Amino acid sequence: xxxxxxxxxxxxxxxxxxxxxxxxxxxxxxxxxxxxxxxxxxxxxxxxxxxxxxxxxxxxxxxxxxxxxxxxxxxxxxxxxxxxxxxxxxxxxxxxxxxxxxxxxxxxxxxxxxxxxxxxxxxxxxxxxxxxxxxxxxxxxxxxxxxxxxxxxxxxxxxxxxxxxxxxxxxxxxxxxxxxxxxxxxxxxxxxxxxxxxxxxxxxxxxxxxxxxxxxxxxxxxxxxxxxxxxxxxxxxxxxxxxxxxxxxxxxxxxxxxxxxxxxxxxxxxxxxxxxxxxxxxxxxxxxxxxxxxxxxxxxxxxxxxxxxxxxxxxxxxxxxxxxxxxxxxx
Length: 331
Fold this sequence. Notes:
331 residues; 4-stranded mixed sheet
């Protein structure tokens, strides 16, 4: 018999600095109206080194808040999985820094996972598999990114999209009798990886004194191809996962999609025939926070009372790689 997997607590953390569309109008040729119509975004948060707001900082603050709210002993955590594409350092990873900042002394398993905007769904289901197998019992799952460091503020097609933030969820084999992760589906297509990419900064193309000013160190996206692929894949993968767990679309109370672009989210819901009022979004206030979008929306939905115990929730994501994934859970 496999263990049930419950979400015990969630929390979010965002940088203090707000970058509005009006601010971007002063930096690049764009307008508030153009940004809102194309993306649904009005403002986003930007990390600052002066405020100690790198991915591990934001993640640790969110985790501390989550654990303190339920008076949970952090040393009973036996796993930390952090989804990020913007780690503080090449090494050590964000998960290890969070372990240190939480003051954990039990030397639990910890690692980072890189699946870009699909990262939290990948990390969430990795943690679920560990718990259902009985290998682990309490896993802190993190989505934390500061994508602003890879954002070219001279490129109006990408700089309007990204913001920084972190969200966490504590998964546990402790069951309240209602909660469980029912199933998931993950996929990837490396053949189209160039649709969303950062060319410089890795081993193949390290940043040197000769190319440090090269704009290839910033994130680039083929917008039209990304849009078409995201809508198609998120729709198909979501419906596949819902069917796999023996539910129907009308059984789902809430859909939490990766906050890539409001037009993508609306198109996915429309193609699925899913009510738009049941789609949880925070893109207007935070933009695309990469791996943090789903956990921060989950946290918001729980805190404002929309998501209730016993309800069915669908996660669905699409990101660089290309990668994608969906999860159905009973909260």
